[in-house]
Design brief:
Blueprint: H1 2-19, E1 27-28, E2 34-35, H2 37-53, E3 58-61, E4 65-66, E5 73-81, H3 83-87, E6 94-101, E7 104-112, E8 117-122, E9 126-129, E10 132-133, E11 145-148, H4 150-155, H5 157-168, E12 173-176, H6 180-188, E13 192-197, H7 202-214, E14 218-220, E15 234-237, H8 239-249
Helix pairs in contact: 1-2, 6-7
Length: 250
């Protein structure tokens, strides 16, 4: 099934690259986030590839919603994570395709097409970047970059700023990149010691969660409980930074 996810992610990535810097108009969703015709085209392509191989599986995606099929297998897809970056011609965006079995993430693919980085993971088989096994290394918070969700800053600016202030004197620096899959990939590459968000949807992080676990990191909610599908709150990072972040947010 991981081969299907990789094929679908690459196909969506091709569409993203072909249309990069060419988007002239966007629509506004109810939550005031932007969506382009490319988001929809990518999701349609991903669904087409998955259903051709696994017609009985269920799919939930950011643009077309949940098909509500009665299946133990559910694909959880974000065809374009970082739509705002994409529209404003920033290269920080990507594709996320997760797979859950009985509501437990078991596999995932993240593709950052401009960076030509393809991450993949299966439960019990490790996490890989372009075929190279990933290992999250422990590093103290003081020597680490910390990534926060931009959506949380935009929608809850006062609370978000107060939370960020807790980290200013404790970490090296803070980043707000506007792309969950980029942040999760950054944890895998040891660029970020930890990423935090209170505003994620399952399709933002389902693929990345299994990757962080398989690479030796820790993923919980803000209470320290292992992250589950449906929880918008997430702290993902190396063991030391994750522990320190939980204490700061407590």
């Amino acid at each position: 099934m991981i081969r299907t996810a990789i094929k679908a992610a690459k196909a969506a990535g091709k569409i993203l690259v072909e249309n990069y810097c060419k988007i002239e108009s966007v629509s506004v969703k109810q939550d005031k986030s932007l969506v382009t015709e490319v988001d929809s085209a990518c999701e349609k392509k991903i669904r087409e590839i998955i259903l051709a191989k696994h017609p009985d599986h269920s799919i939930v995606g950011e643009e077309e919603g949940d098909d509500h099929k009665d299946s133990d297998y559910k694909w959880i897809i974000d065809p374009l994570d970082g739509t705002h970056n994409y529209f404003f011609k920033s290269p920080i965006f990507g594709v996320s395709i997760g797979l859950a079995y009985k509501n437990e993430p078991i596999a995932g693919v993240i593709y950052l097409p401009i960076l030509k980085e393809l991450y993949s993971a299966e439960r019990g088989k490790g996490c890989f970047l372009n075929g190279k096994k990933m290992l999250i290394k422990d590093k103290p918070l003081k020597e680490s970059l910390v990534s926060f969700s931009s959506w949380y800053f935009r929608s809850n600016s006062g609370d978000a700023q107060a939370e960020a202030l807790k980290f200013f004197s404790k970490c090296f620096e803070i980043r707000v990149n506007g792309c969950a899959v980029f942040n999760l990939a950054g944890v895998l590459k040891n660029t970020f010691g930890v990423m935090l968000s209170k505003s994620n949807k399952d399709w933002d992080v389902a693929a990345g969660v299994i990757m962080i676990k398989e690479a030796g990191g820790v993923v919980t909610d803000y209470s320290g409980i292992p992250w589950k599908l449906g929880n918008p709150n997430i702290i993902a990072g190396n063991k030391t930074c994750h522990k320190d972040a939980l204490e700061l947010m407590g």
